[in-house]
């Protein structure tokens, strides 16, 4: 169950957090993983940890908003491992701010990473995914990391919510395109709730309104309180969902939203 033996995956933002956990799960379930990130040292360390655990992975520096770097990553993956079967568009940033205080350049930067990065990833991986899609019962798989904030709004998060809502619907449109054009590629989104990662710290800072440790801890407690299961999510909670959608167990699943949030959106 949930195996990806022989498949080749590209994981963006894989140096830490949800991307690192997902890359590890995929590698230990049999995939060869091209792990990319802007953070080179951390990315290389994560790859070493995956290798020590018995998985196959390599690291390449990448800024997901740079088109030429996407071309280079796909080419390097094909040269190193022989193709691409799984794309996990995970890299994302959560900086935000009130609409009336946010600079246009900050809005544009967030959109470039969270939305254009996903677009460029799909654009440049689809041709490679098509090459090998018929090898697998479940075809090729693209998984885009959105958020519960792709469904609901929050104070100080207009840009983030807009980007994640965009990823959610771009996923559905891409899923239909890939299905109806006969590409044999499934495209799905995952919507994490409040997950314990470094990335969560920026959300806590926004919620704490610039306050110190105490304000951040109280914001953290309010996230736990908003989560019916009663804890923050662990990166591996998302990695398990990634592995499922990447595997042939999800062969008939495309254009769907997998919410992994401890019950937040059920309320
Ligand atoms: N942590 C949460 O609570 C949560 C909730 C919902 C959605 N998400 C989403 O999950 C994804 C991962 O989040 P995380 O919490 O693991 O974040 P994180 O900040 O811990 O890790 C994100 C990684 O992406 C990399 N990255 C950022 N910008 C990049 C760029 N331009 N090019 C390449 N790499 C880049 C970072 O260097 C980092 O290693 C993001 O898309 C985030 O929006 C997170």
Summarize, please.
This protein is an alpha/beta fold and 267 residues long. Helices cover 48% and strands 15% of the residues. The protein contains 8 helices and 7 strands.
3D architecture notes:
The protein is of the alpha/beta class. It has one domain (8-266): NAD(P)-binding Rossmann-like Domain (Rossmann fold). The protein has 8 helices and 7 strands. A 7-stranded parallel β-sheet has the order 3-2-1-4-5-6-7, with helices on both faces. The longest helix is centred in the middle third of the chain and has 29 residues, at 104-132. The mean pLDDT is 96. The protein binds nicotinamide-adenine-dinucleotide (NAD).
Question: What does the secondary structure layout of this molecule look like, with pairings?
Answer:
Elements: E1 8-12, H1 17-28, E2 32-37, H2 40-52, E3 56-61, H3 67-81, E4 86-89, H4 104-132, E5 140-145, H5 158-180, E6 185-192, H6 198-207, H7 213-225, H8 235-246, E7 257-260
Parallel strand pairs: 1-2, 1-4, 2-3, 4-5, 5-6, 6-7
Helix pairs in contact: 1-8, 3-4, 4-5, 6-7
Bound molecules: nicotinamide-adenine-dinucleotide.
């Amino acid at each position: 169950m949930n195996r990806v033996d022989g498949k080749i995956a590209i994981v963006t933002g894989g140096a830490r957090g949800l991307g690192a956990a997902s890359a590890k799960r995929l590698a230990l379930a049999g995939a060869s993983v091209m792990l990319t990130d802007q953070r080179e040292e951390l990315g290389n360390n994560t790859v070493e940890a995956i290798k020590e655990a018995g998985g196959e992975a390599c690291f390449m520096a990448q800024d997901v908003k740079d088109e030429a770097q996407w071309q280079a990553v796909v080419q390097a993956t094909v040269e190193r491992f022989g193709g691409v079967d799984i794309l996990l568009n995970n890299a994302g940033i959560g900086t935000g701010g009130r609409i009336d205080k946010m600079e246009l350049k900050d809005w544009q930067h967030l959109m470039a990473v969270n939305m254009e990065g996903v677009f460029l990833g799909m654009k440049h991986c689809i041709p490679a995914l098509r090459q090998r899609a018929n090898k697998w019962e479940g075809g090729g798989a693209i998984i885009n990391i959105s958020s519960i904030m792709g469904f609901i709004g929050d104070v100080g998060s207009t840009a983030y919510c807009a980007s994640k809502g965009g990823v959610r619907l771009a996923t559905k449109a891409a899923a239909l395109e890939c299905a109806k054009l006969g590409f044999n590629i499934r495209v799905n989104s995952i919507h994490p709730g409040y997950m314990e990662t470094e990335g969560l710290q920026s959300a806590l800072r926004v919620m704490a309104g610039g306050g110190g440790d105490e304000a951040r801890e109280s914001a953290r407690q309010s996230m736990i309180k908003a989560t019916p299961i009663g804890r923050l999510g662990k990166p591996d909670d998302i990695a398990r969902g990634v592995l499922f959608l990447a595997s042939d167990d999800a062969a008939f699943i495309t254009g769907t939203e997998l919410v992994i949030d401890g019950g937040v959106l059920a309320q």
